[in-house]
Every structure is written in C-alpha cells, then in structure tokens.
Design brief:
Blueprint: E1 6-14, E2 18-27, E3 32-41, H1 51-68, E4 75-80, H2 82-90, E5 100-101, H3 104-116, E6 126-133, E7 138-145, E8 150-158, H4 162-171, H5 176-184, H6 187-195, E9 203-207, H7 209-219, E10 235-238, H8 239-255, H9 257-264, H10 271-291, E11 296-299, H11 304-313, E12 317-318, E13 321-322
Parallel strand pairs: 1-4, 4-5, 6-9, 9-11
Antiparallel strand pairs: 1-2, 2-3, 6-7, 7-8, 10-11, 12-13
Amino acid sequence: AEKSGHLRIGLIEVGSRAIRLLVADFDRFANFIPVKIDTIQHGIDPSEIEAGDVSSINEIILRLEDAISKFSCDRVVIYGTEICRRISVLWADALDGRIKVLTPREEAMAAWAAGILCEDNKRAPIECTVIDEGNASTEIATGYWNGNLIHDFKYTSLSVGSADLMDMYRADSKAYLQRLIAHLGNYRATVAESLGRSTGGGVVYLAGGVATKIGWFKVRKSLDDFYQPHRVNGARLSVSILTNVFAELSKVFKLDPDKARRLVDARAGSEDEFIRIISSAPFLAIVRNFVDNRDELKITGYGVRHGMAFLIMNELLEFDVVKIV
C-alpha cells in the first residue's frame, strides 16, 4: 500500500511511571507537529499493584480519550507497557479492553524506532541498537531499516528497571556498585544469546527518561536552563561519561547532598530524581558494554510513543500487530 503523507495520530501510553498523551501531525519519518501533550503521574508501584490501581488507570484513560476526541485524529492508539503486562497476569480482564498491551517484542521495536528517528532515515539502510531503560524493565533491540521495512530485528527484555535500581541503591549506597555488577553478571549471556554477535557497525542509542536526563547534563547551558528533552536528540556520550556521572555525583553527595541533588534537578523535592540518575548511570554503562566493547553511544530524546508513530506511519503496525520481515 502507498505510504500515507500525513496523519494526525493520538497516542495514549500507559507506562510504569506515568500515562502520557501525545496528539500530533506525523509524516512517515515521524517528523511531527505536536497538537496536545499531557503527562499524568499515576504513582503506582509496579511491584505492588492493587485492584484500585487498575481502576485508576482506566479512569485516566477515559479522561484522556475525551481530550483526544476534540482533535479529529485519523488514528488513535491506546497501549500499555510492562505495568500492563503485569496487570494482565494478575487481573486478566480488569484493564480497559481498548488498551493494546504491548508484548516485550513490540515495545522493544517501538523503542528501537526511537533511535532510528534520530538518524537521517532517508539515508537507509541503517543499523541501530537501542537500550531503553524504563521504570520496570529494560529493552535492548537491534535491527536494520531499509527505508521501507525492518530487517534482522532482534531484542531482549531485562527484568530490571530504574525502580529496582533505586531500591538497591537506597538499601546500601556504599556497596551499590559491587552489588550491581554481581546482580547483572548473568545478563551478559542473555543479551549475547538474544542479539547474537554484533557487527560493530551500528549506532548504539540510549533511550528513556534517565538517559535523556543524563544527555541533558551535556547539552544544557546552566542549572537554570529549562529542561527540553528534544535538545538531547543525537547527543554523543560514552561509557566513560556514564561512569563519571556516578563517580562525580557520589563525590559531591558526600560533601554536600543538597548540591548533588540540585545538579540533577534544581526543583524542590528532587531526591528521587537524584537517586534515579545516580543508580542508573552505571547500570546503563554496564548494559552498553553487553552490546559490544565500543565506548561511544548517542542519546535519543524520543520514546516508545514516537516509535509507535513511526511504525504506524510506515504501515508496520496494522490491526495492533507489528509486521516484521
């Protein structure tokens, strides 16, 4: 079928930290003009989901659906990630039936597309690997984009997310690095088996809120610079920078905890964000080295919802099924 020129797409994403709304006019390369953006923090602990939490999610979906209805969308997609997969196991029929619960493979593909969006995707073929750390899981995906279809797509999903890392850090911050290395020891083989031997020729992107915030450290001009995630797209980092983030923040924290928190997030009450960043930086460095031994990497400020739009616009997502060559 001929690719669509432009579509107005409404996306509602039920994530493990928040429910996000994006209404935008997209072209097939997922270049977009935003029409409506909203984020509602649901405050649900993915490890302790209760029946009332599911009702809260359903109520928020209804409110956001009502908001979307005002914008004459060509396509509306409501989907959920890891938290919805956990709810489906606990209460099979409790979620709003219109929520498409993404499989780990589908979520990984949408995250992978968020990396492709930072490349010049008219210059196909492109090889790309994306590491997307979420609140409850981390997806690693690799594949080729030939300008029309996705080839050789491989992925793995690690049952480790920022919430787990924060708990580990809070339990014993002094021994955190040693415990993290031991905890991740078994995952290297899992990644190697799932992704196969890397050719070493593709770009490796970090995606997700933590990666975006670390990228912001590099591109911001001052502590007062207003946080703009899109400005990190394509920012170049390295494994050594990720390691240094942990070392430097730990050093500052020993001398002046408040200053360390302000370096991460100058807003009041930002302790959780500080712990999220300091616990995730070495995690991302270790997982990056699971892919290959190169030092360099890039950051994408795009997320799963932007990747979903890319799949929709290229007719790779039809009837809620991702088509893969």
